[in-house]
Specification:
235 residues; alpha+beta; Jelly Rolls; Arc Repressor Mutant, subunit A; four-stranded antiparallel beta sheet; 24% strand; globular
């Protein structure tokens, strides 16, 4: 379901995103004219792998998983995009004509879609805006390199704790209660481990008195200690 008029709270959230915050009022108004709000139901597909690229996206609410399918029909979650973040802009800037992944809502979600060609035309009119976009993509690239490093050089327990801590504010140092917003099997796929390996890692961390698990609720018993364990790669 698409709503032509974006609500003020959606506009404000979009304005705060790093990709749009460097725009002047006129440029941002042009973005709003080529943007729509899309409501996605759980497991509803936003776009499919290898289909022509037509829009880039901003997640206002919910969670969108980006998935690649193998020849055998298996799925690998490349990334889970949470509110406040954009996706598909890297594909647009690289000049690729098709989406390299499939985007699926993991729960009820609201996504802002922005017409790709019109957005690119706007960028071509401003060198300063292009430089701002390069900075945005640079941050994403560094993030992806770090993620690759974690998934190739560290064990399951390290990856699980790193994932949990990524959702904890830096100001938190003691106990923290976390509710998993996506199914455990999808988290396992995101971390490049099998669901049973994910379960064993949770059990091992619980046995070490580092966390407490109750269904989708996770208690991190000492955030500072967990951060120190990651820092020293002691997990």
């Amino acid at each position: 379901m698409i709503h032509k008029d974006l609500q003020p709270k959606v506009v404000n959230a979009l304005r705060e995103n790093v990709m749009f915050s460097g725009m002047n009022d006129e440029q941002f108004d042009r973005i709003l004219k080529i943007a729509d709000l899309v409501k996605q139901n759980p497991e509803q597909m936003l776009f499919q792998q290898d289909t022509p690229l037509s829009h880039i996206f901003f997640v206002y609410d919910g969670a969108i998983k980006l998935v690649r399918s193998t020849i055998k029909g298996d799925e690998k979650i490349i990334e889970v995009v949470f509110p406040g973040r954009t996706f598909a802009e890297g594909v647009l800037f690289s000049g690729a004509p098709k989406y390299p992944v499939t985007a699926v809502a993991m729960r009820q979600s609201m996504v802002v879609s922005i017409q790709a060609t019109s957005f690119l035309n706007l960028l071509k009119e401003s060198a300063d805006l292009c430089i701002n976009m390069l900075g945005h993509l640079s941050v994403r690239l560094h993030w992806m390199v770090k993620e690759l490093d974690k998934q190739t050089l560290h064990n399951a327990s390290f990856r699980v704790i790193d994932y949990f801590l990524s959702q904890v504010n830096e100001a938190v140092t003691d106990e923290f209660n976390l509710t998993l917003s996506v199914p455990k099997r999808d988290i396992a796929s995101r971390l490049s481990i099998k669901p049973e390996t994910f379960s064993r890692a949770l059990k091992s961390l619980e046995n070490k008195q580092l966390i407490k698990v109750k269904e989708k609720h996770i208690k991190l018993k000492n955030v500072s200690e967990l951060r120190a364990l990651l820092e020293t790669e002691a997990l």
